[in-house]
Design goal:
The structure holds 2 protein chains of 2 kinds. Chain A is α/β, with parallel strands linked by helices. Chain A has 2 domains: 3-254, P-loop containing nucleotide triphosphate hydrolases (Rossmann fold, 3-Layer(aba) Sandwich); 270-499, Rossmann fold (3-Layer(aba) Sandwich). The chains are: A alpha/beta, B mainly alpha.
Chain lengths: 587, 279
């Protein structure tokens, strides 16, 4: 056999429950295998078992794991210690949590090589700098002198790859390494990973829930569901001709289809209208000059990366954060800025649904209490009438009415998110603000929530402000889309307007960074062009905030003047000096 | 209800059950002890002082020839009752103030917190001694002293819990809904901090038993002819050289009471969370 890593009949049990059952696969030397599945499918458990490790409470109950000529599961503690971090290395999901904040990067990166006696400190540092360079990190010679808090999430993730590769391991395990990153960062990290792993000639196991990412990285794919292998085959075959029903479900959920009917155009009177809004925390400004309208029954999608001010916008509209200037009008009436000045009716008509249902539902209350409270509070419903209405609402979100007596502790993530939504619906609002409501859910569950939202909109005529970092999700539900970058509204327009070529350079980057569901996409993208040289930005001028990253910036214009709002041929409004945005054309 | 209690007891670990038995025993003795006492606790009934274990006096006699068992049964009332009342006052005050700080504007929080910090910075034992020495010992004063000494600790723990809970998304949702401060404090925050606070209440009870026993040992606690467990130890201190039961038994009594409460509360918090899930 020429396989390098081989797993046969692997069983892992937690207490009396089998969480991984009879899993087997093999990887040729230098191959990349992806383990893909939803949360709870056992993908991380299998990845850990490759290092002979079972998490607390779990036990490897049977099977063999062979890496090279070593039978991993028969090794004793000393043998495993020599293996881990040396022959087999691991890259975790959150690099920010994996680095020790009190030590310099270089001390941590060279540690595996020095501890395992691979090389002395000097040689290890030279190797580390070479790895930094091949991972396309900025300032490879001096970045090791910094502390973890001085670096971004994407940089830390690449540094963690350097730490994993420094011993020249035979097998590298990447456990959801880009899941916590913004999509524009993810593409760079993926490219760096792919190149570095190939240069090392290492065999790799890539754990992920994202099919599109896996398509870029893997030669072979193992699809897992509930601890069992559903499908195992070459990447191209699994992606293009999936044999298994479950794989097809995953593929369908990975790229949500348009779920919503078209909302009404701008002809109707606006329900929510925001003009010239500025807001911030203390002296730190976050949102700058936001203008938007949502018509009754329409959906506005707000998209941007983490820290772009998406959630802050929802907080301002809800009244939790009074804006420093500008106005928020609802149904033609200007809303008081602070929550304490709004009346019950104004609170009722705008409801906010949080991203994380685990923290948004009070663990001390039952499902019936949670949904019943807005009924009692806004509508004075009590006793049998309230019980009946709770049952109706549970039916509306497609949960059994018997759930009303349960606490939310034992429910699944998708059920909790539905209850989170039902609480908002109980108020009979006109506008629901959904803050990343599908982000914490598995793709299949998230797609079901999107369907539900679209159905509710159709039946109840609700308007949504739908916040997400994922452009595919926003396109599936929104009528209008607004792109936020660093608190400025860089592009606004109808959903269709985003199909046009002329768009804001940031929008272009955002859309272009979403991996497509086919192998080879990453190679086609090529490296991003280096931004053209500009002059020293003019002091005190209110310049475009995307300027430092923009590949289309114009020296003498972008670095001197405040960008104007202008229409594009596609009908959108962009905040840019170039009317054609990120497309070739006479400037 | 009986069934629920039985499953609850069954789910306790062994140490928890031992603790529960000890606590129940002491509660029983505190309530019914005086009725069970074979002799009048103040009467000189034995022929000998510091007598050993005999059939007539199962726990021996004290330095004046009084029956130790009877004195112990009558004294449990003071130690358990007083400490229970003081712990209740301390924990309730602390929790209530903490809830107020969590839902009030910042200046209220600052005001209350700094006031409590001031109280904490006064050495508690010295404060108790001074108060008792100045005003003279009485049951209400002992209650007050123990409560003042121990409520700042309860407040600090409750406040850190409440302030964290007040940032939770479900509290933000309630705020957005337009709920009042009282609803948020009592319905959204309090149920999620009640279990840690119960554990804290148990600890505080133990501390107060020890404080009161200590004060009594110094002669500043419960005054003769009444006696709590601490004063029983003090009275019979001269029997220490003879290893008289009169000094050993009350000391062991204090130990079983505090150890029992500790064992019980140590096995509680995990239970509390699971119970909350079932309710």
């Amino acid at each position: 056999m020429n396989s390098h890593v081989e797993v046969r009949g692997l069983n892992v049990v937690a207490g009396g429950t089998s969480i991984v059952a009879d899993v087997g696969f093999s990887i040729p030397r230098g191959g990349v295998l992806a383990l893909i599945g939803e949360s709870g499918s056992g993908k991380t458990t299998i990845a850990m078992a490759l290092m002979g490790y079972a998490r607390l409470g779990c036990r490897i109950a049977g099977g063999t794991v062979r890496v090279g000529d070593k039978d991993v599961l028969s090794l004793d503690e000393d043998g495993l210690a020599a293996l881990r971090g040396d022959r087999v290395s691991y890259i975790a999901q959150s690099a920010a949590a994996s680095f020790n904040p009190s030590r310099r990067i270089m001390d941590q990166v060279v540690e595996p090589a020095v501890n395992h006696g691979r090389m002395d400190r000097k040689a290890a540092e030279a190797k580390a700098v070479a790895l930094f360079r091949s991972l396309a990190l900025p300032d490879p010679d001096s970045i090791g002198e910094r502390y973890p808090h001085q670096l971004s999430g994407g940089q830390l993730q690449r540094l963690m790859a350097a730490m994993a590769l420094i011993t020249g391991p035979e097998l590298v395990i990447l456990d959801e390494p880009t899941t916590a990153l913004d999509v524009t960062t993810q593409i760079e990290v993926l490219r760096a990973f792919k190149q570095a792993v190939r240069e090392q000639g290492a065999t790799a196991v890539y754990v992920s829930h994202d099919l599109a990412v896996v398509a870029q990285m893997a030669d072979a794919i193992v699809v897992l569901n509930k601890g069992r292998v559903r499908e195992n085959g070459a990447a191209v075959q699994v992606l293009q001709q999936p044999q298994d029903e479950y794989t097809r479900t995953l593929m369908a959920a990975a790229r949500p289809e348009r779920v919503a009917v078209e909302g009404p155009g701008a002809v109707r009177a606006p329900l929510l209208e925001i003009k010239g809004l500025n807001a911030g925390y203390g002296a730190t400004p976050i949102l700058r000059d936001i203008n938007l309208t949502i018509a009754r029954g329409a959906t506005l999608g707000v998209i941007g990366e983490s820290g772009s001010g998406k959630s802050t916008l929802a907080r301002v509209i809800a009244g939790m954060l009074p804006p420093s200037s500008g106005s928020v009008s609802f149904d033609g009436v200007r809303l008081p800025p602070a929550l304490s000045m709004r009346n019950k009716e104004q609170c009722r008509r705008i409801q906010l649904v949080f991203q994380n249902a685990d923290t948004a539902l009070n663990p001390a209350h039952s499902v019936g209490d949670i949904i019943g409270r807005p009924l009692a509070f806004y509508h004075g419903l009590k006793g049998a009438a309230a019980v009946r209405r709770v049952a109706e609402l549970l039916d509306l979100i497609k949960l059994p009415a018997s759930l009303a007596g349960r606490a939310c502790g034992g429910l699944s993530g998708g059920q909790k998110q539905r209850i989170n939504l039902a609480r908002a619906l109980a108020a009979k609002p006109d506008l629901i603000m959904c803050d990343e409501v599908t982000s914490a859910l598995d793709t299949v569950v998230g797609a079901a929530i999107l369907d539900l939202l679209a159905e509710l909109k159709r039946e109840l005529g609700l308007a949504y402000l739908f916040i997400s970092h994922d452009i595919a999700t926003v396109r599936a539900i929104a009528d209008d889309i607004m792109v936020l970058y660093a608190g400025t509204q860089v592009e606004t327009g109808r959903r269709q307007g985003y199909d046009a070529v002329a768009r804001h350079p940031y929008t272009d980057l955002l859309i272009g960074s979403v991996p497509e569901l086919r192998p080879g996409w990453l190679e086609e993208q090529g490296a991003r062009p280096v931004p053209p040289a500009i002059r020293q930005p003019k002091d005190g001028a209110d310049l475009c905030r995307f300027l430092p990253r923009c590949s289309w910036r114009v020296s003498g214009t972008c670095d001197q003047f405040t960008p104007p709002r202008r229409p594009t041929p596609g009908g959108n409004t962009i905040l840019c000096h170039r009317p054609e945005g990120a497309s070739e054309g006479a400037s | 209800m009986m069934n629920a209690t039985r499953t609850w007891v069954k789910a306790l670990p062994f140490s928890g059950r031992v603790g529960l038995s000890l606590v129940l025993l002491w509660l029983f003795l505190a309530v019914f002890g005086p009725l069970l006492a074979p002799y009048d606790p103040g009467a000189f009934v034995a022929h000998d002082v510091f007598a050993g274990f005999t059939a007539a006096h199962p726990l021996g006699s004290d330095y004046l020839g009084r029956d130790v068992l009877s004195r112990l049964l009558s004294g449990a009332r003071y130690s358990v009752g007083l400490a229970l009342a003081a712990a209740l006052v301390a924990s309730t005050t602390g929790t209530a103030l903490a809830l107020i700080t969590a839902v009030s504007p910042r200046w209220v929080d600052e005001g209350i917190s700094r006031f409590v910090d001031t109280l904490i910075s006064i050495p508690s034992k010295i404060l108790s001694l001074v108060l008792v020495a100045v005003v003279g010992s009485s049951l209400p004063l002992l209650l007050l002293v123990a409560s003042i000494t121990y409520f700042p600790g309860a407040f600090r723990i409750a406040r850190s819990l409440a302030v964290n809970l007040a940032q939770m998304d479900y509290v933000q949702v309630a705020r957005c809904r337009g709920e009042g401060a009282v609803y948020i404090a009592l319905r959204e925050i309090l149920p999620n901090m009640i279990h840690p606070m119960l554990a804290d209440f148990g600890l505080r009870f133990v501390f107060i038993v020890l404080l009161l026993s200590g004060l009594s040992f110094l002669g500043l606690g419960v005054q003769p002819p009444d006696a709590d467990l601490g004063s029983l130890v003090r009275e019979n201190i001269s029997g220490l050289g003879e290893a008289a039961p009169a000094i050993l038994v009350p000391a062991i009594a204090i130990a079983t009471l505090t150890v029992g409460v500790n064992l019980l509360i140590d096995s509680l918090p995990g239970r509390g969370r699971r119970m909350a899930g079932k309710e």
